[in-house]
UniProtKB/TrEMBL annotation:
Sorted UniProt keywords: DNA-binding, Transcription, Transcription regulation
Protein's UniProt name: Transcriptional regulator, LysR family
Species: Marinomonas polaris DSM 16579
Stored SUPFAM superfamilies: Periplasmic binding protein-like II (SSF53850), Winged helix' DNA-binding domain (SSF46785)
Highest taxon of the lineage: Bacteria
Similarity annotation: Belongs to the LysR transcriptional regulatory family.
InterPro entries with a match to the protein in the record: HTH-type_LysR_regulators (IPR050950), LysR_HTH_N (IPR000847), LysR_subst-bd (IPR005119), WH-like_DNA-bd_sf (IPR036388), WH_DNA-bd_sf (IPR036390)
GO cellular component: cytosol
Amino acid sequence: MIDIAELLTFIKVAETSSFSAAGDQLFVTQPAISKRVASLESSLGVKLFDRIGRQVQLTEAGIRLLPKARKMAEDLQDIKRSMTLQMQDVSGELRISTSHHVGLHRLPKSLKRFQEDFPSAQLEIEFVQSEEAYQDVLKGRAELGIITLSNKENPLIESLPIWSDPLACVVSKDHPLALSKNLSLIELAQHACVLPNKNTFTRQIAEQAFGKQGLKPQVRMNTNNLETLAMLVNIGWGWSLLPSTLVDEKLVVLNLPDLNVERKLGVIHHKQRTLSRAAIAFIELLKSDSTSL
């Protein structure tokens, strides 16, 4: 197996007729140049240079090798140029797994821009729950996940927060707490609520807030659909925690200084997976769009 560095060193020595001059041009010491040439000669089983005094001349084997070595060096440069062009080209398939809520309320502008800016790229989007999208990335089924970020670290997952998503505590207009000015978590915990399922990141964030005061919310019903939660609150089934994008005039936002709950929405990818140019471009576009909101 021929070492590329040894082959390039051979070419430089042949061109300069000098081990020291070749070392200067390659930024390595003369002993290192001699070692590379000796190693190449050993691999090929032939002598490539005659050293006569201070003169360095190609042997017959060296003369025959030089054009082939130059051709290999040119091919190597072509490979480098080709890969550079490919790395500049945003194309191919990009598989994204995202939650319904993030996909509906955060992604439309970015998706439109991405398709306009990179028409050669093909987006494949799976709309699932954040927790499922997390598993899609972890198991390699998706390159990017755009989700509610978990508050637990995973050594295999890289998380990049993009948006802050404060959660408002809301009730219906005819709820007993609707006219309350300032509430404590103890008072809130005495009333029924509707929340996402226990395995969701949003539910875990909410229960952590209650747990700090030794409390547990009285969950009347679980559903992962945030629009359904808003409807259940509106018909008086209890209070809930909803992002501001779902709070309308039918709901009352409670003033709860002790319940300052905020989700982080963003991008995840597997740390052991080399991101495609399309994935890198999409992440940069998300970051750009988020700062322009």
